[in-house]
Amino acid sequence: MPITLADLGWSAARERAFADPAAAGLVAGRVVLEHNHVYRVLTAAGEQLAEVAGRVKHLAEGRHALPVVGDWVALRVDPLGARSQIREVLPRTSSFSRKAAGRETEEQIVAANIDTVLIVFGLDVPVNANAIERYLVVARRSGAAPVIVLNKADLVDDVDAAVDDARRAAADAPVLAVSTRTGHGMEAFEPYLRGGATVALIGPSGAGKSSIVNRLVGRELLATGEVREWDARGRHTSVHRQLVVREGGGLVIDTPGMRELQLWHTDDVVGETFADIADLAASCRFRDCLHDTEPGCAVKAAVEAGDLDAGRYANYLKLQGEQAETSKRRSERALADAKRIGKIGSKALKALQRERQRQGRDS
User: Fold this and answer.
1) What is the crossing angle of helices 129-142 and 159-170, to 10°?
2) pLDDT band, very low/low/confident/very high, at 272 (cuts 50, 70, 90)
3) What is the widest separation between alpha-carbon atoms in the chain?
4) How many Cβ atoms from other residues are within 10 Å of residue 275's Cβ?
5) Comparing C-alpha atoms, which of 237, 314, 267, 230 is closest to residue 140?
6) How many CB atoms lie within 10 A of CB 242?
7) What is the pTM of this model?
8) Dihedral angle over CA of 44, 47, 48, 51, nearest 10
9) Which of 12, 44, 1, 16 is nearest to 249 (CA)?
10) What are the CA-CA distances from residue 56 to residues 62, 63, 200, 207, 234 (Å)?
11) Residue range 125-151: mean pLDDT, rounded
């Protein structure tokens, strides 16, 4: 059965925004896979292999401006069947990003144009409230709605207790308990996949994201690791991000497991994830209280009184510190980039002046 743009999540708003590229003879498509700078792009006419045009690379401010899985792009299709060219990346309605792994201060877009972020954890290990809070901070900044998924529910005796533990960290985000082995709870995903909606699965390695994708699409589409007998844990096998179109409707993006999830753009979503702490902060003596060493801090008083969990408070301070450090590094990099660009412009101007002086002497 042919796939339409509507099946891929195309909308009337995107149709209107695509008027100029369409007039230029470009074709709309959605990136479903990227490998070694070659992209698989689905269009109304089928799948195209594509590369990014040199002009797009030249104008890109960084890696975050280049196509990622889930992006809508404008293609120049080669009539002879050669690789198409991605001439434009259309504006994103949402994007899940993190600081790129390593020392470099750069944004990495994990996936784009997502409606719901499914944050998957495995119940083969105890519920980790700190990890849930960290993923929620990043997911809320993406513009997509976060949902906590506790996979491998068949491995615990008291699923309700595990869900309660997760809910305490999840605030207002829904918490689903599922088992890909037994099929328990899988029907809870269907409301998030209606009408060409896109969900992206993220989370630590071994949580069973690929197994969930296989369940959702109804076939063994993605490889999954065998479960080790000694600790009941699976090996993560996804190495590339991939967008999958379901026959039953909706789209699913699987992502490789993340060994580290460092904050990038967080703005005020740390406060949104820790809404209880934000409410307490309104009663602090100082408006700019950092809830660390300042006197008259209502947040610290709540911890001392046992009204606020000390671990949650410590994780809040840690994420606030990371946010401040990342903002500082981004500012430093922006300043360094501005100086570098200024030096390049200055050299070019001096070269132009020397050339004009030389031409004046020769005339």
Assistant:
1) 50
2) low
3) 92
4) 11
5) 267
6) 22
7) 0.72
8) 110
9) 1
10) 11, 11, 26, 36, 40
11) 89
